[in-house]
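Technical note accompanying the year-one report. For the benefit of new consortium partners, we illustrate the data format agreed upon in the data management plan: each record pairs a sequence with a structure-token string. No post-processing was applied to the example shown here.
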Amino acid sequence: MIKTKRYQHTKAKEINNDVISNEWPEIGIVATESPNDPTPSIKLKNGSVVEMDGKNRSNFDSIDCFIANYGINKQTCEKAMSLSSQKIAEMLVDVHITRKELVELATGLTPAKLTEVVSIMNIVEIMMAQMKMRARKSTANQAHVTNMKDNPILIAADAAEAALRGFAEVETTCIVGRYAPFNSIALLIGSQVGRPGVISQCSMEEATELQLGIQGLTSYAETISVYGTEGVFVDGDDTPWSKAFLASAYASRGIKMRSSSGSGAEVLMGDTEGKSLLYLEARCIWVTKAAGIQGTQNGSIDGLAISSALPGGLKMVSSENLIASLLGLEVASGNDTWFTGSDMRRTAKLITAMFPGTDFITSGYSATPNEDNVFAGSNEDSNDYDDYYMIQRDYLVDGGLIPVRQKDVIRVRERAAKAMQAVFKALDFTPISDEEVEAAIVAYSSKDMPDRNSQGDLKCAELIMTEKITGIDIALILKKAGFDEEANSILELNRQKVAADYLQTGAIFDEKFNAKSSINDVNSYHGPGTGYIIDKKRSLLISKMNNVIELEKIIENAGECNSEDDIIIEEIGNFQKSHIKDEVVVAVSPSFGISQKKTLGGVSHLHVLNEIKAGLEEEGIEAKFVKCYESADLGVIANVASKLSGSGVSIGIQSKGTSVIHHKDLSPLSNLELFSQGPQLTKELYRMIGKSAAKYAKREVPTPIPSVVDPKIRRFFVKAAILHYDDTNCIVRNKPPVEFKYKGVIDCEKE
């Protein structure tokens, strides 16, 4: 079969390595609307739910019982369920219906009804609803901080940088589970170096996670898994009641907790009951709500490879985030799993959470290169920071991160590594060498770190648990070692567990440990100009990227060049029309050689004229040089010059480098050859322009100079606009074209 070369090129793209599939409802591989999904229904008898989603109470499984007994609002459910799903979907995008009203309504809706409601909505409507339903007014973000060597010094440095960049939460895990105490301490110390108030967790087996929290080495937990079928719960030796008990255990110790679910998990665990991914996730979210847990990490998470393979799968992922928000939960909306080789596709997924905003846009963003991400890679990693900042800046969206200066990154990474060094020394752990500290400051990944004595480290890590070393112990060590600010921050983190303000839905800390949650920072969006508005200070902060061009300096820079490239222009007088046939008039714009002395491509004006002159002379044609003061327009300059030229041929040059070959019989906007991409023009090309113009002057038909068209040239448009502005400011009305001669500054000095 014949295939076009474009087809072959397209098929070689990374996107075509993504796995996509058809639906198979019988085994639950269907995003929404499985034929096996139940029809929404509710019936009460004596204040008890006796039927839910087409199932009698006698047939309820443990999940149904838990939702019916502890979740569904018995006072509102019959009225709520009587509304059509279409009506509820319309209410979600109606700015006149408040979030409070919708949360109250949603707690009376069954899993099947919630699924039906969001399935009606398109992705833009889902995003509109999410903007209103987010629990906390302001947005935030979470980072993954891991490495493939479980190197605690690098974890501390990376955590410090992540906190500096604005992450409100940081999460780690381990290749070897016994490293968990080390990684937890590293994350705790590093996060407080970067910014006081950042909270941390270590994703491990649930008992270990709880113990780390009790010892004050972590401040929250997130990987408390809930499932949408009873069979998967049983396989995990769990029930909804055991999850509720665990949530109570965390809360009793003042430790924040979210559950973790996400569509596709039941497919991976082999028990879907033939139900759709979204329906099963709606059940998970209801279990979380009924258990009294403050929030959820969902958005497919580990099941994203399943969800993203299906038609409408990523829309469905956004739908599950919306269901969680509808039920009044804090939402950490995924975007934490690598699923595609397409930058366009992963960005499209990100913006469905980033633009409307969720409580935690990612859960989490890999603060390291994905090669070091022990969670098997995130949708975004440390190589994407500048892209992320640019999206925030482009759309004035607060994605929870801020640009940072490299000197500040170095400062916090060094301080975090040295703090770890001091703690290890005080605890008589395997020493951290100065070499390791220096490596951690500048490391790209764990490949840049010296290997440690793993056996020694594991023995020390075990001591943290057996001897019950606490966060307070770490704070005291840091205090004695001169790390007062970090010591105070760790002490305050543990004090906040007693105050428990951050156990409220959506809670995060600012740098002064003020808790912001849905209680005191409630999302009040009800249409344009309401809800979270980025104030001027925050807007400037997220817009201040390191590569911002200072417009005022563009003209100044264009007027600077090395002395050997500098030009001196000496005006002779008004240029009179010539009748010499073997000459070409070379006309330049008003600022040429004066306020501007080089092109956008970096070619000095001296070399531009030298090369054009040389090209003309190689063909036996003389150059006459003219400055046009009445216009900075390239076509006008060249047109005026062509009518003064004895050959009728001219070359027009703007100060920024754009050039044209013109003829007297053409209109200003026509040309013989146009070279519009000034930054692409080299000395060699200017010589070719001279040679080609000479051939036109001799009435020959030269082969046109090959065009250089590069879409990336648009990167120069801002500079080009400023330089053209300068050119127009140098216009002198009613001043006729002036002939000039020129020399290099060096030549003048020699004379």
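Partners are asked to follow this layout when depositing records. The chain has three domains: 19-133+222-330+337-357, 137-218+362-548, 554-750.
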